[in-house]
Structures are given as C-alpha cells and as structure tokens.
C-alpha cells in the first residue's frame, strides 16, 4: 500500500514513505500539574446567567450545529463565570490558567464587559500573534451580536492594521502594539483592564509588557488615578515564577480533555515534511471523513507546499478516501483567509489544517481528531557573539509537544502522530527559552529608552543576557539613535526611529533616504522586507519561473530585484493586477500587504517631515541608503571563495535562492540569515566597500575594517 506514496515527488526515496508507526497508546492528561496551594480551584458549579438567544453559528467548527449562544454556554469557562467575575472584582492582579479552548480568550473579556468591570475604560487583550488577534476579535464581535460589526464594540489592532472606533470596549491587539501605545502613554490610561494572554509564549514584547503594565498599575495607584486591573492568562505556564513576579493569586480553571493516543515513529525522519504528508494519507485512508486532521509545520513556504501536495494527491484516483478541504494557517496570511479555517466543510469531506505553532495554544479549531506533529518550529534567534539574527527551524520543546498533542483531544478521544521517535522526544528541552534570552534586543532597548527606561534597570521577569543588552546599546549608538552608550539618551534621530514599527536598522534606512534622494525606493524595499516573500517558487515550474523572473533581475542583487518587481506591479492597472501576479508567479497577498505597509510607513515619514524623493534608475543611491542601516550586515568574499562577515568575522554562504547566487561579488549586504547545516545569507545587495568609510567612518575605525577593494 505504501507504494501509493510514490506519487508524491520524485526526489524522495521510497523508504521515506514506508513510515512505520509504533503505537504506544498513552493517555494525555493536563500538563499543568497539580495545583499549588496558592491556586484557587474553580469547580464546575452551575452558573445561572441569562444569555440572550442568537441563531448565528456561522463561524464555528464544522461539526457543530449549535447556535453561538449555545456554544458559549457549553464552554468550560462558562460554569465558572460568576466565581471568576467575583475574583476579578476582588483582585487587582490575577493569573488565570486553563486548558486551551476552554474559553479564556473569547469569553473572559466578554464577562468583564457585561459586568461593566471596565467602567468607562477599555479592555485590552494582548496576543503574541496577529492571526490570533484578528480571528478572535472577529469571533467575539459575532458572539456579542449586537448588530454592529467588527470595529465597533469589539476591535483589533495589529501592526499595519487597525479596526477600531470610539465605541470599542474590547480591543484585541498584539503585544507589540500595546507596547507601542505605552510609548505614547506609559500609564496606558485608556485601559482599565489589561489582559496579557498567552503569557507562556514569553515573546520579547510580552516580557517587556509585564514590567510596563506592572509599573503602570503601581503608579496609577500611587497617584490615585483610575485603577488598572491586570489579568495574566495562559494554558500552560510556570505558575510559581509568574505569581512571584506579579505577587498575585492563580485561578485554575478545570477544562475537559479526552485521552489522546500518541504514536512515535520507529526511526528518526530527516524529511519531516514528506513524512507529514505520508502520515496524513495513512490516516486519510482509514479514518471516517468527519475526523479532521491538524498538521504542525514551521512556516509559510513549507505549509503552502504541503497544502499543495495534499490537494494534488487527494485527487489522484489511486488514493482512496473522501474528498479533502485543505487550509493553511500562518501569521502573515490576510485575515479573510485565516477565518476560513473555522468554516464548515461539506458533509463527507475531510478538513485538514496545516499550521504553524499558532494552532498550538492561540487558536482552537474544533473537530480535530488527529494531530500530526512534525516536531519542528521556526524561531528567530540572535547570537551576540556572531552578531547574527537568524531564522532557524529547530526542534520544539516537550511543553510544545504536549500542547500540540492536546489539540487532538478537544472533542473526543484522539490521536497524535509524532514525526519523531520516543527517544527524540525525551531529548527535547523541557520548555521553550523566553525570546528575550535569545533575540536581538535593539528594538526593545530603543522602545524602552523612548519611555525613558534604561534596559539595565528594567524590572524584567527574567533578565536578558548582559551581552545582548550591551550589543543592543552598541548597535543603537552606531545607528546614531543614542548620544552615547553609557547614558543611553536618545538623539533626535533615535526619537524618530522609535516612531516606526520596525527594527531600528530599517527605520534608519527610511530616515536617511532623503539624503540619498531615494525615499520612494527605500519605502518599497523596507515594506516588502516587512512581510513574507512576494515571489512564488513552485518547484515543479522552476525553469519557467526563472525565465520569467529575468525581467526583474538586477546585477545589484535581490533588493533591487524586489524594487523592479514592485515598480512593474504598480504600473499594471488595478483590474489586471491579479492576472499579472498569476502570470509572473508573484504572491498577490504578500505584494498587496507590502503595498499597504508601504502606505503606512510613508505616512509616518510624512509626520517626520521627510521630503518625498526618488532616485529613478540611480541604484547606487539606494544601495548606499541600505548601508546606512545595515552596515553591520556586510560580508566579504574570502580567498577560498566563501564569505566572511565584516562585523564579527563569521563564515557564511550565499543562499541558492539569491539572484546573485553563483556570481561572487566582493562585498555583499544582507538582510536575512537562514541557519541550516550552514549559515546562509538571503536577500542581498552588492556594495562598494569604500562606501562604508563615507557612511559609517566610526564603525570602520572601531572594527578596524579595511575599506579598499
Ligand atoms: O483561550 P482559550 O484557548 O481558552 O479558548 P478560546 O480561544 O476562547 O476558544 C473558545 C472556543 O471558541 C473554542 O472552542 C474555539 O473553537 C471557538 N472559537 C471559534 O469557533 N472561532 C474563533 N474564531 C475563535 C474561537
Ligand atoms: Mg486563548
């Protein structure tokens, strides 16, 4: 039977398809552990709250024919509504812990709102990811069902997208956006309740918000201003660590989970992507059509590839099984598409969701009975010693593995297929390292400085490594954002840099652009780099795509190529853009997103009074301008034909996807590092090394860089 998988692709050997799972059924149980004495345990007491009827059920899981109000009442959190409200009333700070899907994110803000605990203020609910903020806000606005749509009582705010109004009382926003609001008002006065959701994710932004919100609450108390309630929520976290930091009580919501059988592979799988597809078809042949499947992979490209493979293979007459509907789910998707994962599928059709770790805890899709866990995740990590901030696909932690497993046991008993061996599982780290301990801190350090806080004196839950803080200060100093490394006082440029929702290196590029007369070009490049790739690269059409892409090609490299593609796209009339994108293998969603981002960045530039300018075809100006922000991201060709970074002397290679791969320019500027077996540089521009002397003479001197070709 396994021979069927030969259909998949020529490049994979047969052995990859004959996956043998060693069934080791174990019962999945709540991994939160026994409640510590401090916790308040809420039992399933009967809550008698009259809830108005509504017949809308448009956005719920596919197997559910209940009305929205019936669904709300069925959620575990509903049983505890009164007790919860009572606790929230009595405590200024509270930690709420409850199984994923029990209704924390969608229900608790509504409970607070209907009990008017927010008084005249707003309830903010932070999410680490935009996809969650948007989809949950949309759901909650339907649940409230007061006739007004999203953006009225319930709104959302994510980077480059705001759907709110003066009526908005419940605001779902990314943690990054709340942090930006804190720059304008560090006491966050427009909010009376702040819910820090998914606290276990420990993104840099959440970690910084912990300290900012805690401080805002304290200062508001001291100054007798409107008090601020703080609620920290999660499905899984180190409760003792959190309750010690926030000095508060923990409420433990009992949820429902069903046993999940766990299967490990017999042998390690190098090609986990193919193994996921193979496993899916194994399930697909046997399981009834109404059992949905959730596959965890790492990022957009991989997810789109698997979605495509499954769609294609499912149509093959040799593959037995019901028809399938396959949905991708990842952060950079447009909101309209993200909502689709919640939609019903026709009867006798299997629903498959291929997702990043966003479906781990932030988003719950009902009806999932089988989880396929690749065991991998894409994370950004920074190494102060190498100076490189790299996107890396790496193994998940055991905590994440358990969360993924739990997704299969939401509605009834389920199965979780781990694409790794039991031994590999045991070797995984217990929990994920907080982002603050592994990321480039320059954005956060800059944001804190604009709040007049020095990162070294900030009340972090876990202090970031000293070297990371030091290198962030060093970087900001070299960018001209601070007066000197010690005082950390922002310069005028630094204050302007903090206004952009960007890495300071990219804000610097925009703020320098008028000196090079290339603001239009810089805006385009920075906007495109802020999203996912605009180029589609279907492997089956490689030659065709390469031939077509020639017209955008630039000997100066990828950034200019992006610029060329964008320029041509804007020249196409509105009506023809879709077909133009299709013809040129351009991802229409991503290029549309880039256009929106560009408009917003242009708006901030106008506010900073940066005059509009364009350099036409003089690409030297653009290349120099890129260097004003990215001078630490330069590599030189070595005698042995490899590349070495000028900043910290790291050996690197040009990624094969670069348009100048194969040419060996003496100096290149890069914007992305991908770490696999080697350290690859992606998105490149060739530069002249003498420009460094002209643009950043101090840096050249400090690093002792030889600026002769
Ligand atoms: O936050 P928590 O994990 O506790 O749960 P939640 O996000 O509040 O989700 C509660 C329920 O609402 C789940 O059963 C979800 O499937 C459902 N939901 C939905 O149907 N559509 C959405 N857009 C969001 C949630
Ligand atoms: Mg939630």
From TrEMBL:
SUPFAM superfamilies reported for this sequence: P-loop containing nucleoside triphosphate hydrolases
Broad enzyme group: hydrolase
GO molecular function, one term: ATP binding
Keyword Chloroplast: no
GO cellular component: nucleolus
Residues in Helicase C-terminal domain copies: 259-452
GO biological process: positive regulation of transcription by RNA polymerase I
Alphabetically ordered keywords of this record: ATP-binding, Helicase, Hydrolase, Nucleotide-binding
One Pfam family from the record: OB_NTP_bind
EC number: 3.6.4.13
Entry-linked SMART domains: DEXDc (SM00487), HA2 (SM00847), HELICc (SM00490)
Domain of life: Eukaryota
Keyword Amino-acid biosynthesis on entry: no
Catalytic activity: ATP + H2O = ADP + phosphate + H(+)
Domain called Helicase ATP-binding: residue spans: 85-255
Protein known as: RNA helicase
Species, as recorded: Oryctes borbonicus
């Amino acid at each position: 039977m396994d021979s069927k998988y030969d259909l998949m692709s020529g490049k994979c050997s047969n052995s990859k398809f004959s996956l043998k799972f060693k069934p080791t059924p174990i019962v999945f149980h709540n991994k939160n552990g026994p409640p510590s004495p401090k916790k308040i345990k809420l039992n399933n007491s009967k809550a008698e709250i009259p809830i108005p009827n509504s017949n809308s059920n448009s956005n719920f899981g596919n197997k559910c024919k209940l009305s929205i109000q019936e669904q709300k009442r069925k959620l575990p959190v509903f049983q505890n509504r009164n007790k919860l409200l009572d606790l929230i009333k009595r405590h200024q700070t509270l930690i709420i812990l409850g199984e994923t899907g029990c209704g924390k994110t969608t229900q608790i803000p509504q409970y607070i709102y209907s009990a008017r605990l927010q008084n005249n203020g707003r309830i903010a609910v932070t999410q680490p990811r935009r996809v969650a903020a948007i989809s949950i806000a949309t759901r909650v606005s339907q649940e409230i069902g007061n006739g007004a749509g999203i953006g009225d009582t319930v709104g959302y705010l994510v980077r480059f997208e705001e759907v709110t109004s003066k009526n908005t009382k419940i605001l779902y926003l990314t943690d990054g956006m709340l942090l930006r609001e804190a720059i304008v008002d560090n006491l966050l006065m427009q909010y009376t309740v702040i819910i820090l959701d998914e606290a276990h994710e420990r993104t840099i932004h959440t970690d910084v918000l912990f300290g900012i919100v805690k401080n805002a609450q304290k200062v508001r108390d001291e100054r007798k201003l409107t008090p601020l309630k703080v609620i920290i929520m999660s499905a899984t976290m180190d409760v003792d660590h959190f309750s010690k930091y926030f000095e508060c009580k923990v409420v433990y919501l009992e949820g429902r989970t069903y046993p999940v059988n766990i299967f490990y592979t017999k042998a390690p799988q190098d090609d986990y992507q193919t193994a996921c597809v193979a496993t899916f078809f194994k399930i697909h042949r046997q399981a009834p059509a109404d059992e949905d499947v959730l596959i965890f992979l790492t990022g957009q490209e991989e997810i789109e590839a698997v979605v495509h493979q499954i769609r294609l293979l499912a149509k093959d007459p040799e593959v037995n099984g019901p028809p399938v509907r396959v949905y991708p789910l990842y952060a950079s998707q447009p909101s309209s598409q993200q909502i689709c994962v919640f939609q019903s599928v026709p009867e006798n059709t299997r629903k498959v969701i291929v997702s990043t770790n966003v479906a781990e805890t932030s988003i719950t899709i009902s009806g999932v009975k089988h989880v396929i866990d690749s065991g991998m995740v894409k994370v950004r990590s920074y190494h102060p010693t190498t100076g490189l901030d790299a996107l890396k696909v790496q193994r998940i932690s055991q905590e994440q593995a358990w969360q993924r497993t739990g997704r299969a046991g939401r509605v009834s008993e389920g199965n979780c297929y781990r694409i790794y061996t039991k031994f590999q599982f045991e070797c995984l780290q217990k929990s994920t390292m907080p982002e603050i301990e592994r990321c480039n801190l320059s954005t956060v350090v800059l944001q804190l400085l604009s709040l007049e806080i020095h990162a070294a004196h900030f009340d972090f839950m876990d202090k970031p490594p000293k070297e990371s803080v030091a290198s962030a200060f060093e970087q900001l100093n070299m960018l001209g954002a601070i007066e000197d490394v010690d005082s950390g006082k922002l310069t005028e440029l630094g204050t302007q840099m903090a206004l952009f929702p960007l890495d300071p290196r990219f804000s610097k590029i925009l703020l320098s652009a008028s000196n090079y007369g290339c603001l239009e070009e810089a805006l385009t490049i920075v906007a495109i780099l802020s999203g996912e790739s605009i180029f589609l690269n279907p492997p089956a059409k490689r030659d065709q795509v390469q031939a077509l892409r020639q017209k955008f090609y630039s000997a100066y490299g990828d950034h200019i190529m992006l610029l060329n593609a964008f320029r041509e796209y804007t020249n196409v009339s509105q009506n023809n853009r879709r077909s133009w994108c299709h013809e040129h293998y351009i991802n229409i969603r991503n290029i549309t997103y880039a256009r929106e981002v560009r408009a917003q960045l242009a708006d901030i530039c106008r506010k900073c009074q940066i005059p509009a300018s364009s350099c036409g075809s003089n690409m030297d100006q653009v290349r120099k301008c890129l260097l004003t922000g990215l001078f630490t991201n330069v590599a030189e060709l070595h005698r042995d034909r490899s590349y070495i970074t000028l900043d910290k002397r790291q050996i690197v290679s040009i990624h094969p996807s670069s348009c100048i791969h194969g040419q060996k320019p003496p100096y290149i500027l890069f914007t992305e590092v991908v770490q696999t077996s080697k350290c690859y540089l992606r998105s490149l521009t060739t530069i002249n090394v003498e420009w460094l002397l002209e643009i950043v003479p101090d840096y050249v001197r400090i690093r002792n860089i030889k600026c002769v070709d």
